[in-house]
Design goal:
Blueprint (H helix, E strand, L loop, with lengths): L1 E5 L2 E8 L2 H7 L9 H15 L3 E6 L7 H16 L15 H15 L6 H6 L19 H12 L6 H6 L14 H9 L13 H4 L5 H9 L2 E3 L6 E3 L1 H11 L22 H10 L38 H6 L5 H6 L2 H7 L4 H4 L3 H11 L2 H4 L2
Parallel strand pairs: 2-3
Antiparallel strand pairs: 1-2, 4-5
């Protein structure tokens, strides 16, 4: 214990190599259960009431560091004599060199972080938890769950946020708040269960339980009738396989290169299918998901003109969790809103837990499970 008196200011510097002791003292005088720690707190309170400023300093106990040896020397003298009277020595506050470097590098790294990102709004400069566990329930998370949580914190998901709207001819706005025609029209044309006005669509029409690859197959491939029997197959390749298996005496059928809705002929089946999906005479052209789905000309004709001005806030996880009135009912039903208000867990713990995955699954239907 090294007292330091400068200009009538009484300061007491306590240097120790026991981190556990400092951690116990940091809990406060009313939380002490050990007799020794309770006595230390009584002494500290007595000194504080007497006008002393007490500072606790940790230093490593290994030898070789001059400042550590000096602190050990002064502490030994004080313990032997019971008092310390040398007024001329005032050791400086000791900071570990490695800690100093780490702090400088961390501050430099934090100054380079962009503040206009999805993750900064949620986490700031705090690094993600790498324990691989649910911070609300200490359960180990699976690899796919860790990936989904990391992508959600960064706003990199194909189901919502920046990537979700990048492939659509829409603004990057929240679908639960935005009322512009582009998102609602496009989502309705693609049977999006979260689209406004899709409550009247039966579940069978939405094909929610079908995988993305299967959904694309059902949308693009047409029915092919066998020329030798009454069988009807989906897709030309299945028709060829059927003819080779059940009608080997006949040559395989030739691909149909003529559009079903007009008289145009194309060189390949691929170009024919692409034209058929865009053909002006095709009444179902606007319901196909193909490479031309981003064109505004494919929006339903009864929609108003396109708007270039964004309406409503952006669709970020920060908005969905804390601001969006459209997701408030789901947050309340899952108990997330109440638990956050009561302090049962923090927002940081929610971002590293299965509760967040459950919330996203309720918001976006079974699509989260399809990508797991």
């Amino acid at each position: 214990m090294i007292p330091r008196i400068q200009h009538r200011r009484k300061t007491l510097l306590v240097v120790t190599d026991s981190q556990s002791l400092l951690a116990a003292l940091n809990k406060g005088p009313l939380s002490q259960t050990d007799w020794t720690e309770d006595q230390i707190w009584q002494r500290l309170l007595t000194l504080t009431c007497a006008g002393w400023s007490v500072q606790l300093q940790f230093c490593y106990g290994h030898f070789g560091v001059h400042a550590n040896e000096l602190a050990d020397q002064y502490a030994t003298q004080t313990m032997e004599s019971g008092q310390y009277t040398e007024q001329g020595i005032a050791p400086l506050w000791h900071t570990d060199l490695l800690t100093c470097f780490t702090t400088q590098l961390t501050n430099k790294w934090r100054s380079t972080i962009r503040q206009d990102t999805h993750r900064y709004l949620l986490c700031g400069t705090r690094p993600s938890d790498l324990s691989g566990k649910d911070l609300i329930t200490p359960e180990v998370l699976h690899r796919q769950e860790l990936v989904h949580l990391a992508r959600a914190r960064c706003g990199e998901s194909e189901l919502w946020g920046r990537i979700y709207w990048a492939v659509r001819d829409c603004t990057n706005q929240c679908r639960f708040c935005n009322i512009s025609p582009e998102p609602s029209a496009y989502m309705r044309s693609n049977n999006d269960p979260t689209a406004p006005g899709t409550d009247t669509v039966p579940p069978s029409a939405r094909e929610e339980d079908v995988s993305p690859a299967r959904r694309r197959t059902l949308t693009r491939r047409r029915k092919e009738k066998c020329p030798h029997c009454d069988s009807t197959l989906t897709g030309f390749s299945n028709l060829v396989s059927h003819c080779r298996s059940f009608h080997p005496e006949h040559p395989p059928p030739l691909p149909e290169l003529k559009c079903d809705f007009c008289d145009m002929v194309f060189p390949t089946r691929r170009s024919t299918a692409q034209h058929r999906n865009r053909c002006a005479h095709n009444p179902d052209a606007t319901r196909h998901r193909n490479s031309s789905a981003r064109r505004r000309s494919l929006l339903p004709q009864d929609q108003p003109a396109s708007t270039s001005t964004p309406i409503g806030p952006q669709e970020t996880l920060h908005h969905l969790l804390l601001e969006c009135p459209g997701t408030l009912a789901v947050r309340q039903r899952l108990g997330i809103e109440q638990d956050l208000c009561l302090g049962k867990f923090s927002q940081w713990q929610l971002l590293h837990s299965r509760k967040l995955l459950s919330l996203l699954d309720h918001l976006f239907g079974t699509q989260m499970a399809l990508y797991s």
